[in-house]
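Need tokens for this chain, all 310 residues.
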Amino acid sequence: MSSAKMFLVVSALAFAGCGTLFHTNPRLQVLGPRDAEVQDMQGRRLPTYELENDEHGVYLDRHMDSVRLVYRDKTTTVGLVKWLWSGEIPNLLFLGVGNLIDDMTGTWFNYAPVLVSVDSSRVHGLEGIAATIPNMVGETHHDRALQLLLFGGPGLTFMMNGNKVFPASGSSFPDPELSFQGGFGLDFMHEFEFFYQTRSEANYPVSAGMSTSRSTVTASDFGLRYFVTPHYFVQGMFGQATVDGGYYPYYYDYYYFGNVSSNLPRLNTFNEAGAAIGWAGDVSYISLQYFSGLTDFNLYDYRGIRYHSI
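Here are the structure tokens for all 310 residues:
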């Protein structure tokens, strides 16, 4: 493959996602009688497949959330469970951008197999059927209201330049910097999420000059997220941030002869608060966040700095 074609393939993977490009329509494996018929919720029979290893099942539309199973004169309905497709792992090489795209296009998953059990006897004949679909840890649909929440990934941070409130009139729009955040928490009924997160923002400008001194901001926050719709949310955060000594182009940590160390502080900690709006899918989310320091911080010769970032 030529270098130009390789570049196109890599670019497509980065911005389209492996699932969007390569994952075909998902299948639902049926563990049970071969003559059990699988229908959509409108009663239409779904197309079947059979493999050489004796596996059989049906092809599904990605937007389906339930199916109907018919065995002779008995019928039951079961909710579908999604499993993460193994092809999503390469998306992590591109900082998870492909996971977000695959989440939006519904190509990140396979469906978990459905187990069909028949209740019958010689005396009473066929009395009924049941269908269950466990998730990856063996739980059936809606077994628990409380779920573990894990998240992490990159972001673009716009940090105000100087002490003006961002965005300030008359000031230039700040350049974006790559940032990272991650954390864990609890999800309740896909409606409320309480979580702890840590953030790292490099190259924070602490003055308004062109050759400004820059520092790294690390923060730890507790947050509460509320879903106003199944996918759109609002959230609030409160925590503490620390600014390290950073890089200073014109300030030296010693006096002229270099034998007396400066007593000015290298670390500064302050409380902060933030708010956000965003969209969340099944395995990814994207949000617009704003953070502000609740108090000023001092760093070397710089005094009264108020932290802001988007």
